[in-house]
Design brief:
By secondary structure, the chain is of the alpha+beta class. The protein is built from 2 helices and 4 strands; from the N terminus they run E-H-E-E-H-E. A hairpin with a 2-residue loop joins strand 2 and strand 3. InterPro entries: DUF2498, YciN_sf.
């Protein structure tokens, strides 16, 4: 059975998410969550993905994807958005 989650507003959630990014041992400079949406039970974080001139992923794109995946798995278990 899934544990209940706490309500949180978008601004407060982004503050917490960006603190987790800064505190994470694998973080790279410049990674920042600038938006979040709720998709079912999952919080989906958005921000710059650092694509190249042709719009293709760079090594930093992979780091951003992995960080946003970490945020989604960590914070979706604790919170749901209320705005």
């Amino acid at each position: 059975m899934k544990a209940p989650t706490q309500p949180i507003d978008r601004k407060t959630l982004l503050i917490e998410a960006n603190q987790l990014i800064r505190d994470h041992e694998d973080t790279m400079a410049g990674i920042e969550a600038t938006d979040v949406v709720q998709k079912g039970d999952v919080l989906v974080f958005r921000g710059e993905y650092y694509l190249d001139e042709q719009g293709l992923p760079t090594p930093k794109s992979t780091a951003v994807f992995n960080m946003f995946k970490y945020l989604a798995s960590t914070l979706s278990e604790k919170y749901h958005l209320v705005d």
